[in-house]
Each structure stands twice: as structure tokens, then as C-alpha cells.
Design brief:
100 residues, alpha+beta, 5-stranded antiparallel β-sheet, two-stranded antiparallel sheet, 45% strand
Length: 100
């Protein structure tokens, strides 16, 4: 992970996988694939609304079991750049279930 100092508020995450590029792309852009793997161990993704093209938005809910019961964390963002099977740039912010 590296910080993009040009903008002052960006983080660039790069990782290599031993898998076909189109599968990795689907894991980040298809809501059902995304729900199956995203989050730490023990978490689930009950909601993944993803309009993954430039200008589209995302709304993701991560649920974990806390001692007091299930706890949900919501995240929203906007897709800023995209080149299929190569690059995806999006924002990510904590939100409520309506994306606010």
C-alpha cells in the first residue's frame, strides 16, 4: 500500500494474484462475487449495490457479530475511473444505510 502524495488524501493499494485477470475484475465489480470475499474473517456483506462505471455509486454494508449482537457498518463511494480488467478508482466513506 502506498500513499499518493500528489493529492494528499489518496491511498493506492496494489496486490498481485495468481488468478485470471477477468476473475479478479469480477470479484471487484460483480456484487455477488464481492459479497463472497470482501471483509475480514467472520464478517458478511448483506448489501453490495455497485454501479461500477465512471460516475456510478456504491453502497456496501458489512455485518459482524459483536458481543451485544450483529453490528452493521455502511460505506458509500463514487467510481471515478475505470479501465476494464486494468484499473478501478473509487472513493470510500463511512455512511448510513441510505448512503449519507
Amino acid at each position: 500500500m502506498t500513499v499518493d502524495n500528489a493529492s494528499g488524501d489518496s491511498v493506492v493499494i496494489e496486490r498481485s494474484f495468481d488468478a485470471p485477470v477477468d476473475l479478479i475484475w469480477r470479484m471487484w465489480t460483480d456484487p455477488e462475487h464481492f459479497k463472497a470475499w470482501y471483509g475480514p474473517e467472520g464478517a458478511s456483506i448483506p448489501v453490495a449495490k455497485m454501479d461500477v462505471w465512471v460516475g456510478g455509486t456504491r453502497l456496501v454494508c458489512m455485518e459482524v457479530q459483536a458481543p451485544s449482537g450483529p453490528m452493521q457498518m455502511w460505506f458509500t463511494g463514487e467510481y471515478r475511473e475505470g479501465v476494464e480488467n486494468q484499473r478501478r478508482v473509487y472513493t470510500d466513506s463511512v455512511s448510513d444505510e441510505r448512503g449519507n
